[in-house]
Amino acid sequence: MMTIQQQAYELIDELPDDSVKVMIELMSRMPKATKISIVSSPMKDETSKERKRAAFERMKKLRKSATEHKIEDVEAARYDAVKEKYGAFM
User: Measured between alpha carbons, how far is 59 from 53 in angstroms, rounded to an integer?
Assistant: First the structure.
């Protein structure tokens, strides 16, 4: 089995010089691979916790709203709403 680099070398070898120049130009403009460091900082954790808490509160509010409107089957209501809005595309 060939590696990705070996496959790329084979394909480049088959190209004419003008095409290789175009490929070099394209590759030089592509974003380079960067290392991603996953380090959690306390500040990010607090922000994340606050966002999760706010999302949970919104969910509770939506559930309460659903019971006020007597929506028993939320999935069926969602399907009906989507069908009503995007019915021509379904």
Answer: 10
Report the Cα 79 to chain-centroid distance in Å.
23
Q: Which two tokens stand for residue 74?
A: 């939320």
Is there a contact between 23 and 15 (Cβ–Cβ < 8 Å)? yes
Tens of pLDDT, residues 5-28: 889 889 889 999 999 999 888 888
Copy the structure tokens of residue 31: 């974003």
First-residue to last-residue Cα distance in the chain: 43
Phi, psi of 54 (to 5 degrees): -65, -40
In 3D, which of 82, 77, 83, 48 has the Cα closest to residue 65?
Answer: 77
**Cα(87)–Cα(82) distance, rounded to whole angstroms?**
7
Mind listing the pLDDT tens digit for each residue in 62-80? 888 777 777 677 788 888 8
Taken in order 41, 44, 48, 54, the sign of the CA dihedral is positive
